[in-house]
């Protein structure tokens, strides 16, 4: 019945995009069916008639009021339900608007983020371009500075050449003027002498006559005085006796002074002088103390104990062992004990000499280095020279570490080796002086062939240490050590004309250490010097990675060539040892060479 009371009039139309609101329910006798499409089409007046008839019947019925109230209550209930649905519809509309606002805000936030990213990328790109422009400006400025410096150097060279040319020209003019002056003076002097020749001869004659007369009178006077004195001396026997005694005492004094001077000289030489066999020593000689007293004093005051392994790269096992030896040597010196003799053997360049020096400095001892190759050429003087070395060693107040390099050169086997009598005598003198351990000196022998030692020498050795070639880790440490010493320090110090290109130094050192397998520490040190020389020989003074690799390749080739020579020499020696000598019998046959 709602259409009868006009309840559906003025309802709002649903916004686009939302479902149609539910139609209000039909009430009363309005009947069902779809809503007509237009205002007058399909109009059925019977419905109105039935409605009017129903209204009349309701009015006549005694329950008309209750039915009307019930219908009104049903209509109100329907209206309330319809309003609730409308509220839900409006809430859905508001939620949809909120969702649209949230979606728009999210889109706006994404847009802002994207714009921020674009701004950041643009700012980074502009910063990158600015840095590139700044680097390019720096590079151009550096090139300009280098060009200005080169021009200034050329200008200075030109000015120096002009100054030298001017000085040479002035010297030449001065020399010519001096020659002309001397020539003019000589000519004038000669002309004057020619003009005054008679006068000069007369003056010379008068001077000669006067001098002759003076000499004759002096001779006469001296003869008279000497004759009177000799006559008085001979006539007095006390004077004669005193004169003879004085001359005798003078002769005895001269002879005694000569012998005392010789003895004192030998004593001073034994105490303070350096023996001829000693190549290098940390002790100060008399000559050095006289020439440089202040320098010697300052050096002695500044000398402090050092770490025995400073600058020495060894394997961990060997490093621990030699450190124990160094500590034991230092404690032995402090407690005035007996020093132990050490043999260090191994390939050349493995750090034997360097460790001996460091151990002497660590323990506070003096060190002296001699080589076995200097003993044989001395011949008969070898025995005296050997005794002088040990006499000199015994005079050290701090203790002396005597390092004998290439000891196998003169300490060979006396039974099998063909050595001269002089060398044999020198070896015997060495054995005599090292027969017992000493509190004054410590003997350290170094050799590449210890199997050639005489058995008596082996008996005097207390500790044997093998210095092997460096392993992979030791090679890398050595490469880094000498790279820092010969390349990085000169390049960063600024005192030398050397620059270093940009590359990964640590990775390059590791790669080089893997390539130089079999090289000794000395060869790696020479490789560092080769890098430095390559930088100095370049035009711009820059050491590049390619130059380093080239020097490494050359060093590897040289090392392989040396090893090839060594293997050939060993094969030749083995063949000579295994081949029978002339006249020996092999399987019943006599070989004649």
UniProtKB/TrEMBL annotation:
Q: Where is the composition biased (Pro residues)?
A: 12-26
Region entry Disordered: which residue ranges? 1-47
Task: List the GO biological process terms.
Answer: mitochondrion organization
What Pfam families would the database entry show?
A: AAA, ATAD3_N
Q: Tell me which InterPro entries the record gives.
A: AAA+_ATPase (IPR003593), ATAD3_N (IPR021911), ATPase_AAA_core (IPR003959), P-loop_NTPase (IPR027417)
Q: Name one GO molecular function term.
A: ATP hydrolysis activity
- Domain of life, per UniProt, equals Eukaryota
Which residues belong to any copy of the AAA+ ATPase domain? Answer: 338-471
Q: Which residues form a coiled coil?
A: 79-151, 182-212
* Alphabetical UniProt keywords: ATP-binding, Coiled coil, Membrane, Mitochondrion, Mitochondrion inner membrane, Mitochondrion nucleoid, Nucleotide-binding
Q: What is its main location?
A: mitochondrion
The cellular location(s) given in this protein's UniProt record come to: Mitochondrion inner membrane; Mitochondrion matrix, Mitochondrion nucleoid
Q: What family does the entry list? A: Belongs to the AAA ATPase family.
**The protein's name:** AAA+ ATPase domain-containing protein
Species of the source = Gouania willdenowi (Blunt-snouted clingfish)
């Amino acid at each position: 019945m709602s259409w009868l009371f006009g309840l559906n009039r003025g309802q709002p139309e649903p916004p686009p995009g939302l479902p149609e609101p539910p139609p209000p329910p039909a009430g009363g006798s309005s009947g069902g069916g779809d809503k007509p499409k237009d205002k007058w089409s399909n109009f059925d007046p019977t419905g109105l008639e039935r409605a009017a008839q129903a209204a009349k019947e309701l009015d006549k019925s005694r329950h008309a009021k209750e039915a009307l109230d019930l219908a009104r209550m049903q209509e109100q209930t329907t209206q309330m339900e319809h309003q609730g649905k409308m509220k839900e519809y409006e809430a859905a509309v508001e939620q949809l608007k909120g969702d649209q606002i949230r979606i728009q805000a999210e889109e706006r936030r994404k847009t802002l983020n994207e714009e921020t990213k674009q701004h950041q990328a643009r700012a980074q790109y502009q910063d990158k371009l600015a840095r590139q422009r700044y680097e390019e400006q720096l590079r151009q400025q550096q090139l300009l500075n280098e060009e200005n410096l080169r021009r200034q150097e050329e200008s200075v060279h030109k000015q120096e050449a002009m100054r030298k040319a001017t000085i040479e020209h002035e010297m030449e003019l001065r020399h010519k003027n001096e020659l002309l002056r001397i020539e003019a003076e000589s000519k004038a002097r000669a002309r004057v002498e020619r003009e005054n020749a008679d006068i000069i001869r007369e003056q010379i004659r008068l001077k000669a006559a006067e001098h002759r007369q003076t000499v004759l009178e002096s001779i006469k006077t001296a003869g008279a005085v000497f004759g009177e004195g000799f006559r008085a001396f001979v006539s007095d026997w006390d004077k004669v006796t005193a004169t003879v005694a004085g001359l005798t005492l003078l002769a005895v004094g001269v002879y005694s002074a000569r012998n005392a001077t010789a003895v004192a000289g030998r004593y001073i030489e034994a105490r303070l002088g350096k023996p001829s066999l000693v190549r290098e020593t940390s002790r100060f000689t008399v000559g050095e103390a006289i020439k440089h007293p202040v320098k010697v004093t300052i050096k002695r005051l500044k000398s402090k104990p050092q770490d025995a392994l400073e600058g020495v790269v060894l394997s961990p096992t060997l490093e621990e062992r030699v450190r124990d030896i160094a500590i034991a040597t230092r404690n032995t010196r402090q407690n005035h004990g007996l020093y132990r003799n050490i043999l260090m053997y191994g390939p050349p360049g493995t750090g034997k000499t360097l460790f001996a020096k460091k151990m002497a400095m660590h323990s506070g001892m003096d060190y002296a280095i001699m080589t076995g190759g200097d003993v044989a050429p001395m011949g008969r003087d070898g025995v005296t020279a050997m005794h002088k070395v040990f006499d000199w060693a015994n005079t050290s107040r701090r203790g002396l570490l005597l390092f004998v390099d290439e000891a196998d050169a003169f300490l060979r086997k006396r039974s099998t080796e063909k050595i001269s009598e002089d060398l044999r005598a020198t070896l015997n003198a060495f054995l005599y002086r090292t027969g017992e351990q000493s509190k004054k000196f410590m003997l350290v022998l170094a050799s590449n062939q210890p199997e050639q030692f005489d058995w008596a020498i082996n008996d005097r050795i207390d500790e044997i240490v093998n210095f092997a070639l460096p392993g992979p880790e030791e090679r890398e440490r050595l490469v880094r050590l000498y790279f820092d010493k010969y390349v990085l320090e000169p390049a960063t110090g600024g005192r030398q004309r050397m620059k270093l290109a940009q590359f990964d130094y640590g990775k390059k050192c590791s790669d080089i250490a893997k390539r130089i397998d079999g090289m000794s520490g000395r060869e790696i040190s020479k490789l560092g010097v080769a890098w430095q020389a390559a930088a100095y020989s370049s035009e711009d003074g820059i050491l590049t990675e390619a130059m380093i690799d080239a020097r490494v390749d050359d060093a590897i080739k040289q090392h392989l060539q040396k090893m090839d020579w060594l293997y050939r020499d060993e094969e030749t020696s083995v063949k000579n040892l295994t081949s029978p000598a002339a006249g020996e019998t092999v399987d019943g046959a006599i070989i004649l060479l």
